Amino acid sequence: MTAKTSTKTKAKTKPILGKEEYLRMYTQMARIRNFEDNANQLYLAGKMQGLTHMYSGEEAVAVGICEALKDSDRITSTHRGHGHCVAKGANYKEMFCELLGKKEGYCRGKGGSMHIADQSHGNLGANAIVGGSMGMATGSALRSKLLGKDDVTVCFFGDGATAQGLLYEVMNMAALWDLPVIYACENNGYSEYTKTEEIAAGSITARAEAFGIEAFQIDGQDVLAVNELATELVARCRNNEGPFFIELLTYRYHGHHVGDINREYYRSKQEEADWKNNRDPIIRFRGWLVEQGYATEEEIESMNNEIKEDAKKAVAYAEAAAYPDISEVDMHVYAETDPATLRVGG
Amino acid sequence: MREITLSQAVNEALAEEMRRDPTTFILGEDVAEAGTPFKVLSGLVEEFGTERVIDTPISEPGFLGIAVGAAMTGARPIVDLMFGDFLYLVMDQLCNQAAKQQYMSGGKLSVPMVVRTNLGATRRSGAQHSQSLHALVAHIPGLKVAMPSSAYEAKGLMKTAIRDNNPVVIFEDKLMYQEKAPVPEEEYLIPFGEANIKRQGTDITLIGTSSMVQVAEAAAKILEAEGISAEVVDPRTIVPLDEETLLKSVRKTSRAIVIDEGHQSYGITGEIASRLNEKAFYYLDAPVLRMGAMDVPVPFSPVLEDLTVPTPEGVAENARRLCAGEMIHAA
Predict the structure, then answer these.
(1) Which residues of B are catalytic?
(2) Which of B105, B108, B188 sits opposite A344 (nearest CB)?
(3) What is the average pLDDT across A154-158?
(4) Domains (range + CATH), chain A
(5) A254-286: pLDDT as tens digits
(6) pLDDT band at residue A12 using 50, 70 and 90 as cut-offs
(7) Average pLDDT of the residues in B144-152
(8) H/E element holding A68?
(9) SS3 content of chain A, % helix, strand, coil (to 5)
């Protein structure tokens, strides 16, 4: 096959977007931030158990990419997966129920924060093994190609996951077989509690380019730029030009997980303040919407209030919702197989 | 009835199921033109093309993970894992990913996938190409595990595995690929969780898996000459396990030896023996005996390797002593 290498920062074609799409992007980003604020509170208040990882700060990545996808397109997500889930179309109610282990959750309470999946919108699930879903995403793309479908799969993973060997195995096969998959590396600068520069030698995009995969590095705090690039690459995937690799430069506002509070030993408060105050994807996009006349400050405040109210209602609903019946503990270990298909001629 | 080799039986099962279901495909190292080093897949690429018989790089976790994703989204991949020993390479994708999707998603995602691999020592292949690792995967909820003991079982179990909506690991005995057995021309499937009584007997039950079914049968012949009547039972799948048939046999004979080629410690023999002790205790005249492979890495030297796996003579000797009322311990 011919090599398709070059690190580009700008897409060639612009998506045709209007007010409706822009406001939806804003809403989706604000919904992620609100979801995380509430999830964090639930954890701090002792109402939510276990481990959870906040996506706050990275909203433009999930929204910019997922707004370029259809429901029939698939994504695989990560342990920091609430943002991908919301961006791919999930509802607050089923998400909060899942975080609290309730029966009405997307996974009937069996998955929790780190395994939330929303099959109805093509989200194949968060994954608690760093880099664990890279095979699945590539396999989803292989299935699309083998069965003659035109759906595209996006594999979200962090900079930390670039240290997993699986990535290089599956990128090799995706490139050999021209699969419709986009590897989206959310580089938030930290691999858990360690600076990325201490765990990643050389260039991340160059690793994809070594396989002949066209790779891009982009500002992950700019939702329009992300969406423009994603739209172009999704279209090219549908046109059998995949795979692609995008490194999105972003930042997580919280610690590695909710319990990671005192983190000055690995990053300064000044650095955090700089990203929050000067590069926040929601504030930036809000300013642009007002400047371009797509919304007034009042309209945006009204949207924000509506989202807050939605989240409040969903949290209250989830807190009051029922846990699964204890009889469910050994349900869903194995999928049912229709006995008729196991017969001769079946 | 015609006789075909285990290798041909597997090949036929794959071809039939691939004709039946266009979403099935084979993925693995040297599966296409090479037809695998054991030549089990010879001819399939000619019929189904390289789109459905896909040669991969030597990247076991990668292609197994790819199969998981394809299975989750509507295809039915059949993964060829060239040696059972390579299971260690794919443990995360198989046990953390494939096995748990159905449960973690509350029943919404399923992984209808087959992993074809093998087991069996005494092929002089050394410690990393001779292991029988089915206990590793049988331990993981969410995986099914089939262990065909002849060409007949290999075909019928493979067809069921491909149609099952769960990840199934099927272990073929690599020493049996060229062994022939009667296999009907007409289509048949062998259901999971149904043990097969290979030989009726009254004095002792010999439960054998895969390669050890033949060992049990050979032991039964030795014992027959001495007036001891051994029943031989083949569970055929260890997950799900047909506990009822095993219990029924042991309640009848009141003695049992469980024979399996995995390491004896923490293995299949211990699991089955324990279930028999728990559920048939009052019927037993002797402790249930385990006979697995020795707890050593498989050695290369033929004189050493042959010592590590159960033999018909060893099984017969233990059966003899159990029937004589001696208290003995497994090696």
Answers:
(1) 60, 129
(2) B188
(3) 98
(4) 7-342 (3.40.50.970)
(5) 999 998 989 999 999 999 999 999 999 999 999
(6) low
(7) 98
(8) none
(9) 45, 10, 40
Residue A249: helix, strand or coil by DSSP? strand
Contact B240, B192 (CB under 8 A): yes
Q: Give how far Cα B225 sits from Cα of A127, A135, B221, B230, B320, Å.
A: 59, 55, 7, 11, 12
Inter-chain residue contact A109 with B56, CB threshold 8 Å? no
Q: For A121-133, write each residue's pLDDT tens digit.
A: 999 999 999 999 9
Q: Look at residue B9 and tell me whether its pLDDT is greater than 50.
A: yes
Contact A135 B107 (CB under 8 A): no
Token digits for A266? Answer: 């690995």
Of A129, A142, A345, the CB nearest to B66: A142
For residue A106, which residues of chain B lie inside 8 Å, CB to CB? 105-106, 108
Contact pairs from chain A to chain B, CB under 8 Å: 169
Calculate the average pLDDT of chain B: 97
This prediction has a pTM of: 0.96
Q: Which sequence spans correspond to the domains of chain B?
A: 3-182, 196-323
Beta-bridge partners for A219? A249
Which element (helix H / strand E) includes B258?
strand B256-263
Q: Which CATH code, of 3.90.550.10, 3.40.1190.10, 3.40.1620.10, 3.40.50.970, is assigned to B3-182? A: 3.40.50.970
Question: Is pLDDT of A4 > 90?
Answer: no
The DSSP element (H or E) to which A140 belongs, if any, is helix A134-146
CA distance B12 to B41: 9
Mark which residues 84-113 of A lie under 8 Å from B by CB: 105-111
- Which of B23, B108, B144, B155 is the mutation pick for testing A, counting most A CBs within 10 A? B108
Query: How far apart are the CA of B24 and the nearest CA of chain A, in angstroms?
Result: 10
**Two structure tokens written together for B190:** 């062998």
- Is pLDDT at A15 greater than 80 in this prediction? no
> pLDDT exceeding 70 applies to what percent of chain A?
96
d(CA A172, CA A183): 12
**Amino acid symbol at A9:** T
- Which ipTM score applies to this complex? 0.96
**Whole-angstrom distance, CA of residue A72 vs CA of residue A70:** 5
CATH number for domain B196-323, candidates 1.10.443.10, 3.40.50.720, 3.40.50.10860, 3.40.50.920 = 3.40.50.920
Question: What mean pLDDT comes out for the span B138-149?
Answer: 98
Q: Do the domains B3-182 and B196-323 sit in the same CATH topology, yes or no? A: yes
What is the spatial distance between Cα A117 and Cα A308, in angstroms, rounded to a whole number? 23
